[in-house]
Amino acid sequence: MAAVVDAIGLFSAVLTTISFFQANFPGNAPEGATVRIKAGLAPLGQEGDSLAGSISHIYAFDTRNGYSGQVDGCHIDSGGICDRTVDQAVGGRRAGYISISNENDATCIAWISVKQYDGTTGGAWTGDIGYYCGQDWYNSQEPAGQYKPEQGGGQYIPKCTWLDGDHTNDIQSAALKFNTAAYGENVQDTANSNACAPTIFGPDTGPIAGQPGKRKRNARNRPQWMTEQLIMSNYTSQPAEELCSSSTSWGPDFIGSDGKFCDMASKSLLPLCSVEDVDGCVEVDESQGGGTLTRRVNVARRASSVAHKTYKNISKWGV
Questions:
Q1: Structure pTM?
Q2: In a 3-state reduction of DSSP, which class is residue 185?
Q3: Residues 155-172: pLDDT tens digits?
Q4: CA 260, CA 246: separation in Å to the nearest integer?
C-alpha cells in the first residue's frame, strides 16, 4: 500500500511542475465538446505491435453525470490524433465527464484533451494517470508539455495507457472515463492527494455509467458471475433504491419492485422506462437470450436507445 501511495504522491508532485501545450487542444466545437485523443509513439525500432489503434466511441456526460451525447471514434496511427465533436443534445452544456471506448485493436493513449463549447476550461488527461493507477502502459516518445523554468525546464513526455475492446494479451480495460474538471488545461491542475479518483476504467466498450471521484474507497471488485447476471425482483420488500443506497451491499445488478435499476458496480440508480418515461431511463430486452439493458437518451433532440449493459443470465424472483 505504501508503494501505491508513494506513486500517487510522486505523480501529483510531477504534475505541479508541468504546463500542457496549448497546441494539444482542438479547435472550437460547433455542437458540443470537442475531444482530441493522441496515440503514443514508441522509440524507433521498439514499436512492437505498434501503439496505433481504433477508438470506438466518445461519450459526453454533463456535470450531473447525465448522458449528453456520443460520436463515433476513428483510427489513430502511432503518434497521430483523433479529433471528434460530440453530438450533444445541448451543445453549450459543459461536458463534466468524457468516456472513451476502444475497438478490438489495442490503442495506447498518450493524452486526451477537451475543449468546451461554452468557452470554460476544458480538461486534459495523460497516460501517466493510467500508469500510476495500475493500468497497462508503455513508454511514448512525444512531448505533451513543458516543465516550468523554476523546475529546470525541459519537455514533459507522458507514458501511454492501453485500451483494448477484446482484451488481447490480457489488456485489462476497454474504456475509461474522467472528470474534465479534475484534469485542467494546465497539467498541474490535476495535482491532488488522490490522482486516481477522477478516472475510472471499464472492461467493455459501452459508455461507463459510473461517476469518477464518487466511488467509495473500499469498493470491492465483483466476480464474473455477478457481472453477468441481472436480478429482477417482484418482492415489495426489496426496492432497488434500498440496495443502491447501502455502502455494504454487494452482488449482481438489480431491478426492484420500486421500478428502479441499481448498477451495483457504481451504485447508481436509474428508473425503468415503463415506470418513468424520462431521459436516462432503462429497459430490458430479453429477445436474444440472456438480456440487454438499454438506456433512453436524447441525442441532437432525437430520442434513441443505446446498449448500456449485457447479461448472460436474468433471474426473476417472486414471479
A1: 0.61
A2: coil
A3: 788 888 999 999 888 899
A4: 15
